[in-house]
Design a protein that fits this description.
Layout: E1 5-8, H1 12-17, H2 23-32, E2 37-38, H3 41-50, H4 57-64, E3 68-71, H5 79-93, H6 101-104, E4 112-115, H7 118-124, H8 140-144, E5 173-176, E6 185-190, E7 194-201, E8 203-207, H9 221-225, E9 230-240, H10 248-251, E10 257-268, E11 271-272, H11 278-288, E12 295-296, H12 306-316, E13 320-325, E14 335-343, E15 347-357, E16 362-370, E17 376-382, H13 388-398, E18 402-403, H14 414-417, E19 421-432, E20 435-436, E21 442-443, E22 446-450
Helix pairs in contact: 5-7
């Protein structure tokens, strides 16, 4: 079994996926091409998504006799450089990659892979080459038969005004609730990252709870993408895992692949857009054509797409869906019922108020939330989900936060308070959990990561 098989321009796999040829013909095509299966790279994910249950990616790779499938898209402008990059890939893989002249002339410098042997593939691929996500967000329309909301031609560009560009905008927040299915709602995927408002007026400023500009220098590319424009954007900073999906854990690791997903436009060239309906702001955002790396504008859906999109989010492994009223203005700093977040897993924000030492490091963290009377209430402890690196990082963060007194405004169960070391309640984190107990304790919580974009007073216990 070889390590690599190339996938280049053609149509055999796509034809099979669409039922135009049978398995025997596909096998014949594969054999005829020497395991180099023809399929346009732009259509690969759609094709593989359409494969029947008994003919999935792993079976395809088994048929091709390979552990790693490298996709080499078409359309490059410098064939010599592209051929050099392909040769470099083959060298790193420790094997030969048979690339004919006609194929090499069409290759672009970007390569993608899917694999049943990820460790070997990570060695084989240069780190600057992105991974092909076989379940990409943009192809959810093909997979689930959903039409992305188009940019309205009936919606004129906002008239120029002389509104002062705001120095700082607090993000609008969503309420937690059931998925709305009535008319008049738009639907977006819920991203697992850090919320950030981008101010661009010559220089770029990124703000969440703190100034994020220096933390994500790669996002300075936004200045070139919107050169000469004065804008305020709302979006989410995410880190992509090797599967191409946002990973909150990856966001906390150095060297992660960072993206800024923009989903709202609040100010454009002297015009305040926050008073406009969501649908019109989205049209104006689409006309800016912010697409590419490392900044992109994910699509949104309307009509009866909500339930299917939630199913898509579940299958893609995303956090969930956010529904937004199409006629809703943007209300900075307010939590509004016009935006409803529908998470697929039970995730909640908690305040880290103390810890209990373990044998070698931290054994568990003591968690709290603020109730309706602004009292910090104990909600449980978390002892799973940590890596060794996470525990080292937390230990360093805790040192300047030590406090001799418990920060809770109510009692902590004696068995949990025994041997506890208390902290000033300034750190916010995400944990997953199974359910709540009748005593308002988290059942089976597991650590996800710190939330530097959240203030402790925002973490509220909801009855």
């Amino acid at each position: 079994m070889s390590d690599i098989a190339a996938v280049y321009d053609g149509s055999a796999l796509l034809a099979y996926a669409h039922g135009q040829i049978g398995a025997a013909e596909l096998i014949s095509e594969i054999n005829a091409e020497g395991r180099q299966v023809g399929v346009p790279a732009a259509c690969l994910a759609t094709a593989l998504a359409a494969l029947t249950d008994d003919w999935d990616v792993k079976q395809l790779m088994s048929l091709m006799g390979t552990r790693t499938m490298v996709v080499l898209p078409l359309g490059g402008a410098d064939p010599a450089e592209e051929l050099r990059q392909v040769g470099e890939l083959a060298r790193l893989a420790g094997g030969d990659l048979d690339v004919g002249h006609a194929v090499a002339a069409a290759l672009t410098h970007r390569a993608y892979y899917v694999t049943a042997n990820p460790k070997a593939a990570e060695v084989a691929l240069p780190p600057t080459w992105p991974v092909l996500d076989l379940r990409p967000v943009r192809l959810v329309s093909d997979r689930f038969g959903l039409a992305v909301a188009p940019t309205s031609t009936d919606s004129p560009a906002p008239p120029p005004r002389d509104d002062e560009m705001p120095h700082q905008v607090e993000p609008m927040l969503a309420t937690l609730g059931e998925l709305p299915t009535a008319a008049g709602w738009g639907y977006e995927f819920k991203w697992d990252g850090v919320r950030a408002i981008a101010h661009l007026d010559g220089d770029l400023r990124l703000r969440g709870r703190h100034n994020l500009t220096l933390a994500y220098p790669e996002l300075d590319a936004l200045r070139a993408m919107l050169a000469g424009r004065r804008v305020v954007l709302d979006g989410e900073i995410v880190a992509l895992g090797r599967d191409g999906l946002p990973s909150f854990a990856a966001l906390q690791r150095p060297g992660a692949t960072i993206r800024y997903y923009v989903f709202d436009l609040l100010h454009l060239d002297g015009t305040d857009l926050t008073r406009l309906p969501y649908a019109e702001r989205r049209d104006a955002l689409a006309r800016l054509d912010i697409t590419g790396d490392p900044v992109d504008t994910p699509p949104y859906w309307t009509g009866d797409a909500g339930p299917a999109l939630l199913d898509a989010a579940r299958e893609l492994g995303l956090e969930g869906v956010i529904a937004k009223r199409l006629d809703s203005p943007y209300r900075p700093g307010r939590r509004s019922a016009a935006w409803v977040k529908v998470p697929l897993s039970n995730v909640t924000e908690v305040v880290v108020a103390g810890f209990k030492p373990g044998r070698r490091s931290i054994g568990s963290l003591l968690l709290g939330m603020y109730d309706e009377h602004d009292r910090l209430v104990y909600v449980g402890q978390v002892s799973t989900g940590f890596t060794a690196a996470t525990l080292r990082d937390l230990r360093e963060r805790f040192e300047p936060l030590r406090d001799p007194s418990a920060p809770f405004d109510g009692p902590v169960p004696r068995q949990h308070a025994r041997h506890a070391e208390w902290l000033r309640p300034v750190l916010v984190a995400d944990v997953t959990y199974r359910s709540w107990t009748p005593e308002t304790r988290l059942r089976q919580p597991s650590w996800k990561g710190l939330r530097p974009d959240r203030a402790p007073t925002e973490v509220r216990l909801r009855t």
